[in-house]
Design brief:
The chain is α/β, with parallel strands linked by helices. The chain folds into 2 domains: 51 residues; 238 residues, von Willebrand factor, type A domain (Rossmann fold). It is 32% helix and 18% strand. It contains 6 helices and 14 strands. Strands 3, 4, 5, 10, 11, 12, 13 and 14 form an 8-stranded mixed sheet that branches. A 4-stranded antiparallel sheet has the order 6-7-8-9, with no helix packed on it. Helix 6 links the parallel strand 12 and strand 13. It is rod-shaped, with a radius of gyration of 48 Å.
Length: 355
């Protein structure tokens, strides 16, 4: 029994020793593996920071472009003469510089029947003044109505009823307006009575003022015929289409002579002359329309028709009633429809701006 016990005890010790050795080796291997894994993890975390380099960012700065400087065409200012004080006043007009809902009374004036010999206009009297427009600044003006437009058409009454003070006042004011035009501006003068014609052309009346021929300097001619009254004129055949003049010292001198030398003609009708102005190419920006007489019962229709056409084209029509109260309503309507101004010139040359 003792021999077996000793043998068993020795085997157990050997097995225990071997087991301890194996456990120690396993522990060492596991410890080494854990250390290696920890090292690898640490290397994955920290090693990239030693090799990665931040890229260098290169920027370029160019010179900032200079802002384009816009040049604005300026017209040299000129001084305009103010109208002289009136000697008397026969038409009472409410002057206003802004639109108003208040109606403007039309004066009742007892006037004699118009003379057939002198066209169709009525008269305030025979007096006149300087007729100069007020105010300074660039551009031009006509009876105080200022404009800086680059294309201006003058539609001016040269009917026989302008004889006397009206004629002299008109010629002087039109001449002053032309003088104020800056060089390079485009302009044209369209005169009317019964016929209508471009300034510089000559009108020959025939057969008791029932027919007329408009002749130009280059042999061009245009025929007109009267249908019965001073307000019933129309062309026969081709219609005259005005061409623009360019303002220069020489051209303006010619126009000044035309203004003074053109003779008055019988009749008064608005529409053909205004249609001529609207037909220009390129179209005018502003039209100065002046008359001393109404165009008869058709004045209101003409104002509505021409006003609608001008508005559709964006053309402003400034109107001037020269000593003529009967032309008040249609001329104010024409100006209002186109966004223009309306002025009455009274006896003595006093200018009253109604609109």
């Amino acid at each position: 029994m003792s021999i077996v016990s000793n043998y068993t005890s020795e085997e157990a010790n050997v097995a225990l020793t071997r087991q301890r050795r194996n456990a120690t080796i396993s522990s060492l291997i596991i410890a080494v593996l854990v250390i290696v894994m920890i090292g690898l993890i640490m290397a994955l975390i920290f090693l990239p920071s030693f090799f990665l380099q931040s890229p260098t960012i290169v920027t370029y700065s160019s010179n900032s472009p200079e802002d384009d400087k816009l040049t604005q065409k300026e017209m040299s200012p000129k001084i305009q003469r103010k109208p002289s004080a009136p000697s008397s006043s026969m038409a009472k007009v409410i002057a206003s510089t802004s639109p108003s809902t208040t109606s403007i009374p039309v004066p009742e004036v007892n006037v004699p029947d118009p003379s057939v010999d002198f066209g169709s206009g009525d008269d305030f009297g025979e007096g006149w003044g300087s007729g100069g427009g007020g105010g300074g600044g660039g551009g031009t003006s006509f009876f105080g109505q200022k404009s800086n437009a680059e294309r201006i058409a003058y539609v001016i009454d040269y009917s026989a009823s302008m004889k006397g003070g009206r004629e002299q006042l008109m010629r002087k004011e039109l001449g002053n307006s032309l003088k104020k035009l800056p060089n390079g501006a485009q302009y044209q003068m369209i005169f009317f009575a019964g016929p209508a014609w471009v300034g510089g052309f000559q009108v020959n009346m025939q057969k008791g003022n029932k027919e007329a021929t408009v002749k130009g300097p280059k042999g061009h001619s245009f025929d007109w015929k009267c249908g019965g009254s001073a307000h019933d004129w129309d062309t026969k055949g081709n219609k005259q289409v005005p061409e623009w003049k360019t303002a220069s010292d020489a051209e303006l001198d010619k126009s000044q002579k035309t203004v003074q030398d053109t003779k008055l003609v019988w009749g008064t009708i608005w529409e053909p002359a205004l249609e001529m102005a609207l037909s220009m190419d390129p179209q005018p920006q502003v039209i100065y329309f002046m008359t001393d007489g109404s165009a008869g019962k058709d004045s209101g229709d003409t104002a509505r028709k021409i006003g609608a056409k001008a508005k559709s084209k964006g053309i402003i029509i400034n109107t001037v009633a020269l000593m003529q109260p009967k032309a008040h309503d249609p001329m104010e309507d024409l100006a209002k429809r186109t966004g223009g101004s309306f002025t009455i010139v009274e006896k003595g040359g006093k200018v009253k701006k109604v609109r």
